[in-house]
Design goal:
By secondary structure, this protein is an alpha+beta fold. It contains 13 helices and 5 strands. The protein has a 5-stranded mixed sheet. The longest helix is centred in the C-terminal third of the chain and has 28 residues, at about 235-260. The protein starts with 8 loop residues before the first helix and ends in a 5-residue tail after the last helix. The relative contact order is 0.13. Mean pLDDT is about 90; it is low at about 1-20 and about 120-130.
Length: about 325
């Protein structure tokens, strides 16, 4: 799932000692939860049919306890417990036979971002895989993160079998798939990077285009570049790339949609769309590419999300429209 932050162990331990000065879940976090759930119907109409954030408990971690919030925006309950994950990460996590959204409190996030802004050299490395790098992190960003991680809970609750099948028997870990494969095989290969940069430029052009004919024409060139790029990479790297695009890219799309609802169109474009053609190291490039492909699919097949079950790659859906 989306890694919010990873740093050298000394910095992590430093962050872990920061106190928020609150005992219990603050009104600010409750208001964020209420605002997020107030968007449920609009988000379902704008993203994936059946995805309702209110289906999943949201656990806010303050460094000492989880505060698990359930219910609706107007009728919610809060339960205090020992943390199921003693770390400041945003993720979907399996707890007591169901998935939950685990998040630090917004106060903790603010503290972490303040620290990263102070430790400039560490922040560049740590934040390159984070959706909200180099920007102020506030209530609206917390809502967007909640929708991103909630979508992972939705994916794994409803489509885990298809998602696991897409890994073709591989798993994550030292003996399986790892992000280091991306660094070694993609980021450190100038020829592969060049192909990616060409593909990213085409993706941005298609996202911004209002011409279906032009999009389909550009898809042909994109597919040609992809075939050339895939020929340079191992099957394991290709499995990992498709996983990130399909699982994280769709979650990033949901995140960006939530962000758009709580920010201006200009702010949304500046953060999510303007950077589509920017190559980034690590896995985040696939978040970006997957999100862009979702936006293009919205133009070509407006109802594609109604029955999407994660058994098919986003690229396959796009290529299927080239002859229509």
């Amino acid at each position: 799932m989306k890694k919010i932050i990873y740093l050298a162990i000394g910095v992590v331990l430093c962050i872990a000692t920061i106190a928020t000065g609150t005992y219990g879940l603050s009104d600010r976090n409750i208001e964020i939860y209420q605002k997020a759930l107030g968007m449920v119907e609009e988000m379902e109409e704008s993203t994936f049919t059946g995805y309702e954030l209110s289906q999943f408990p949201v656990a806010f971690y303050d460094g000492d306890h989880d505060y698990v919030v359930t219910g609706s925006a107007k009728d919610y309950q809060i339960a205090k417990r020992k943390p199921v994950m003693d770390a400041f990460v945003g993720t979907a996590y399996y707890v007591d036979n169901h998935y939950e959204v685990l998040m630090p409190t917004v106060e903790k996030f603010n503290k972490m971002f303040e620290l990263l802004n102070t430790v400039q050299s560490a922040s560049k490395e740590a934040m390159k895989d984070n959706s909200f790098d180099e920007m102020n992190y506030g209530d609206e960003e917390h809502i967007a993160t909640m929708y991103h991680e909630g979508f992972h809970a939705y994916q794994m609750t409803n489509y885990e079998e298809n998602i696991v099948k897409g890994l073709q028997g591989k798993n994550f870990g030292e003996d399986g798939l790892s992000e280091q494969m991306i660094v070694d095989s993609v980021d450190n290969n100038p020829d592969v990077v060049k192909k990616y940069e060409e593909q990213l430029a085409l993706l941005k052009k298609m996202v911004l285009s209002d011409s279906i004919d032009e999009i389909k024409k550009d898809l042909g060139q994109y597919k040609k570049l992809e075939e050339e790029r895939k020929a340079m990479l191992s099957s394991d790297v290709l499995i990992l790339e498709e996983y990130y695009e399909k699982v994280e890219g769709t979650a990033y799309y949901v995140e960006s949609t939530a962000y758009k609802m709580v920010h201006t169109e200009e702010e949304y474009n500046a953060y999510y769309i303007d950077s589509v053609d920017k190559f980034t190291e690590g896995s985040h490039k696939y978040y970006n590419m997957g999100m862009a492909k979702c936006r293009i699919l919205d133009k070509l097949i407006p109802d594609w999300k109604e029955n999407y079950d994660f058994s098919t790659s986003l690229a396959e859906l796009l290529y299927g429209q080239m002859e229509h």
